[in-house]
Design goal:
- The chain is an all-alpha fold and 92 residues long.
- The protein has one domain (3-21, 34-91).
- It has helices at 6-21, 24-30, 35-65, 71-91.
- Helix 3 (35-65) packs antiparallel against helix 4 (71-91).
- It starts with 5 loop residues before the first helix and ends with a helix.
- 9% of the residues are buried.
């Protein structure tokens, strides 16, 4: 389960670091964007991609590996784990 989220975490981290290197955030801040809007945009970007991956992974795990587990419960656990990883990336 951890391996599935490695690529999105790597991509998100590299995009945030690249944005800091090119000082895009500073330019956006000088044009009037708020800090909350900046992080909300990154969160929504990650949330959409992570939700898509989580739906596929929960479906495959529920019907092929964990046959007696409710798919909604499995989805919730994996989705919340993915959300916690966003907090980890934002902290780094």
């Amino acid at each position: 389960m951890v391996v599935v989220f490695l690529l999105p975490i790597y991509k998100l981290t590299s995009l945030i670091v690249n944005e800091r290197l090119t000082k895009t955030k500073d330019v956006a801040r000088s044009m009037g964007i708020k800090e909350s809007s900046y992080w909300l945009s990154w969160f929504l970007y990650y949330l959409i991609g992570m939700t898509f991956v989580t739906v596929i992974m929960a479906f495959l795990l529920a019907y092929y590996v964990y046959k007696f587990t409710e798919p909604g419960c499995l989805f919730a656990v994996i989705w919340l784990y993915g959300l916690s990883l966003f907090g980890y990336v934002a902290f780094i």
